[in-house]
Amino acid sequence: MSDHTIPGVGADGRITLAHGGGGTAMRALIDGVFLRAFSDNPAAPQEDQARFAMADLAALGDRLAFTTDSFVVDPLEFPGGDIGTLAVCGTVNDLAVGGARPVALSAAFILAEGLDLAVVRRIAASMAACARAAGVRIVTGDTKVVPRGACDGLFVTTTGIGVIRPGCAISIASGRPGDVVIVNGTLGDHGAAILCARGDLALDVTLGSDCAPLNGLTEALLDAVPDVRCMRDATRGGLAGVLTELAEASLVTVRIDEAALPVRPEVAGVCEILGLDPLYLANEGKLAAVVPAAAADVALAAMRAHPLGRDAAVIGRLETAASGRSAVHLANRFGGQRVVSMPSGEQLPRIC
Amino acid sequence: MRFVDEFRDPELADRLFSEIARVAERIGRTRTRPVTVMEVCGGHTHTIFRYALETRMPENVEFAHGPGCPVCVLPMGRIDDAIAIARRPEVIFTTFGDAMRVPGAQGTLLQARAAGADVRMVYSPLDALALARANPERQVVFFALGFETTAPSTALTVLRAAAEGIGNFSIMCQHITIIPTLRALLSQDDFRVDGFIGPGHVSMVIGTRPYDFIASEFHRPLVVAGFEPLDILQSLLMVLRQVDACTARIENQYARVVYADGNPAAMAAIDRVYETRPACEWRGLGTIAGSGLSLRPAWRAFDAEQRFAVTPHHVADPGACRCGDVLTGRIRPTQCPAFGTSCTPDCPSGALMVSSEGACAAYYQYQGQKGAA
């Protein structure tokens, strides 16, 4: 369907307030863009809710997992993904790191008046492709349009449900002294890619976001090591955010080895120039997994056998917290030690 | 990473640590007081903590963290002046990122932005000039911060704005110079620093000769240093060797970047655009004569404070914070009563907690709240 066949879209192909008005323009936008992209059967009657057979869910496990996340990003499209892939991956990954098999997602869009409809189409298409790759369906949604300036192009909120496999007891509070910490690949790719994509740095680097659904990887890991203690995807706040939470919740000291941290040279370069730390940069396809030391080799092999875990590495281990003080310690290449603290606010580039 | 990893080589670092320990031990045979070495520049402070260099120092060698972080020495009143300009509806106020969190009496620039001011982060004054070109109906103001490192780029931006006739661009000039402040520190009776690690970036512009008085008048060694851990360790060793030999010379460890005469083109740009302020206020240090730059009369049309008729605010430093004592090496950050209690990176009251180059933020971030690793 070409854009001029959607009522309310002018010759310039832009979203207008009519597309959120509940009338024919809105119906046409939903049918012509979102349903076309997301639905297996766009001609089926549209109810106000998605419905699931309890028996189908029960066949997958014994508990429901339920999560939601809102996405705002500038720019909307960037090397390696767009706001839509972020939304699908973010919600799928939040389910997956709890040991859940993601089943279905909702997607609620807030569009700004004046947004190019072609952008909406591209984002819907990439969400659909990403959901297919993750093996989940986008089954319900919503669209609102706000006046120009009231939102930055497009915001999207995705909610997901999944089913947790029986016997799986993953928790951020389950880390034990002696356990090892594994990450599935290079750190900070997404954060660095977004900084470069904003274009105000004029850095000539080819760097894509690592945005990817991790449920295939977590399934492989859980199949190999059923007693994984915890998993977290290292999004905002980076690996530092995840590890400081882990230390606090599990009442342990997390000791990581700087030399073991996988960081792309391009990301290290961007961080050098801007005075940032890859430990604090966002990732959208990376997780930290804590496993018992005895299972470390099996876990590492299982992750490395998956395309999203090829660069997996053991980066540290958990220790008894000295005098009850949980913390993250980083051993650097110089034999020195420093504390990795919880991220505070946004990382701001340094003046010199 | 090429040209970086070479300066972070652990084996070379081990050799430097051993040599530092050897020289320190020899110094310790004839002297009971520890050797205190001040790194002047905030970038050096950052390296020292990031690489935990201080955790491998001999017992009788201490770092004092100097006043060379331009964000840290921003007085509260100047932030209030900046906010007064930023609040004007016609103004787009542009600044380097780390100045946005510095608290004045009226809050921070980040808070001013939340309240409706158009405050934007830029990476260079030329970005601000580009904004002025793109928004001819707005007034674009650049918060010109920093030492001689950043002063030339601001100067060249003003010259370009003048050449292009861009009338809606101006700067709020808070450029400062390090030499008068080092002299002021050295002139204090209780200043117990034995030698300096000199600022690399500033020296790239001003050269090494302006430091000569530190050796000739005050008999302290200074070694201009680069910013990688091996640079700092080698420079520290050079300072310690001078202390051991009871000499006081100006040396240059950062010869791959810094020349004795500095960068004459950059100095010429500074000289063309700025004149010395009779007095300039530094957070924690008070007013120091001749330590600030303002636009020369020929360029006053680009002075935001004149354009918007700002009445300068003067605000006393927060009472509990002892930023000045930390900046002069009298106390360690953890000895300040506000450290980690009323002053944290999330809610800084002293500016040394704001910038990651500030000694207090570095202590907090890399050593933990209680200051113990």
From TrEMBL, chain A:
Task: Output the CDD domains linked to this UniProt entry.
Answer: HypE (cd02197)
Q: Which residues form the PurM-like C-terminal domain?
A: 176-323
Q: Which residues form the PurM-like N-terminal domain?
A: 61-164
The biological process GO terms on file are: protein maturation
NCBIfam families the record matches: hypE
Which family is this protein grouped under? Belongs to the HypE family.
Write the protein's name.
Hydrogenase expression/formation protein HypE
Which organism was this protein described from?
Answer: Gluconacetobacter tumulicola
Lineage of origin: Bacteria, Pseudomonadati, Pseudomonadota, Alphaproteobacteria, Acetobacterales
Automatic annotation (TrEMBL), chain B:
Q: Name one GO biological process term.
A: protein maturation
* Keywords from the named record: Iron, Metal-binding
| Keyword Iron tagged | yes
Against InterPro entries, the record matches this protein to: Hyd_form_HypD, HypD_1, HypD_2_sf
Q: Which GO terms describe its molecular function?
A: 4 iron, 4 sulfur cluster binding; carbon monoxide binding; iron ion binding
Task: Return the similarity comment.
Answer: Belongs to the HypD family.
NCBIfam families membership:
hypD
**By what name is this protein known?**
Hydrogenase maturation factor
- What species is given as this protein's source? Gluconacetobacter tumulicola
Q: What is the lineage of its organism?
A: Bacteria, Pseudomonadati, Pseudomonadota, Alphaproteobacteria, Acetobacterales
